[in-house]
């Protein structure tokens, strides 16, 4: 069973966000932190949000995913995920630039972003 995502310590998040050149540890911390906030804001299992290689989470109410390919998948890199979560980039901008790959019903996460 995968580990449950939990929000990180606010001081650690602020410190990681303040760095202009983030380490892999910073990216991992921020990715998991903001995925945990998304799961709290939009609980459910109809959309799988993948931020390789750091984490994935299921969120958004709807058809419950239990096996195989989920009904909706969002995949993006850590920099894009953090930019969306903090409001630096909008969902539309990220999609138009090809930085988000989203498919399936409910895959548009713009209603839940930014998370801060």
Number of domains: 1
The Cα radius of gyration reads 13 Å
Q: How is the main sheet built?
A: 4 strands, mixed
Nearest-integer average pLDDT: 93
Going by CATH, the architecture would be 2-Layer Sandwich
The shape is: globular
Give the CATH class. Answer: Alpha Beta
| CATH topology title | Nonspecific Lipid-transfer Protein, Chain A
- Uncertain regions spanning at least 5 consecutive residues: none
Classify the secondary structure makeup into a structural class.
alpha+beta
Tell me the strand percentage band. 15-25%
Strand order of the largest sheet: 2-1-3-4
Q: How far apart are the termini?
A: 29 Å
Number of strands: 4
Give the topology string: H per helix, E per strand. Answer: HHEEEHHE
Provide key terms for this protein.
Nonspecific Lipid-transfer Protein, Chain A, 116 residues, 4 helices, 36% helix, four-stranded mixed sheet, alpha+beta, globular, 4 strands
Give a verbal description of the structure.
The structure is a single chain. This protein is of the alpha+beta class and 116 residues long. The chain has a single domain, classed as Nonspecific Lipid-transfer Protein, Chain A. It has 4 helices and 4 strands, in the order H-H-E-E-E-H-H-E. A 4-stranded mixed β-sheet has the order 2-1-3-4. The chain is globular. The N and C termini lie far apart (29 Å).
